[in-house]
Amino acid sequence: MHIVVVTISDRASKGIYEDLSGPLIEDWLTTAITSPFDVTRRIIPDGFESVRDTLIDLCDQERVDLVLTTGGTGPAPRDETPEAMRAVLIKELLGFGELMRRISLDQTPTAILSRQTAGTRGRTLIINLPGKPAAIQLCLDAVFPAIPYCLHLIGAGEIETDPNVIKSFKPVG
Fold it and tell me: 104 with 110: CB under 8 angstroms?
């Protein structure tokens, strides 16, 4: 199982801002997943082309199982992660973004500005997480129960989770 965490930030990619989101996601994964996996982190600048090209490379060349992006999902002019995602995806899974926004609205009214989405390209699942570290765990806790089964359905690697952290849904039969 190969997971890649992609931080999308002009400032972090230039070293102006410390990437807090990528390490937080990696720590969460290490706590939640009990089966063998490796995780790679990348930091890229905002923008349509950089996000699109990175995602295509990860899916088509590196053939990773799961890509978790963070950042670039707001309404600012350089926030083009969802547009780049839609150019890459074969199947969009709108429920991921809907759930992340719904759960985030319990904490902040500005969650309505978020444009996270998810979907598949080949046997890779890609999910856009928020860029704010405070929202990342909340969103991972909300959507991760469906991720192992989704990975199974698309023919990606299998993962097991610690039921004390995240109880994954697996249908019987």
Answer: no
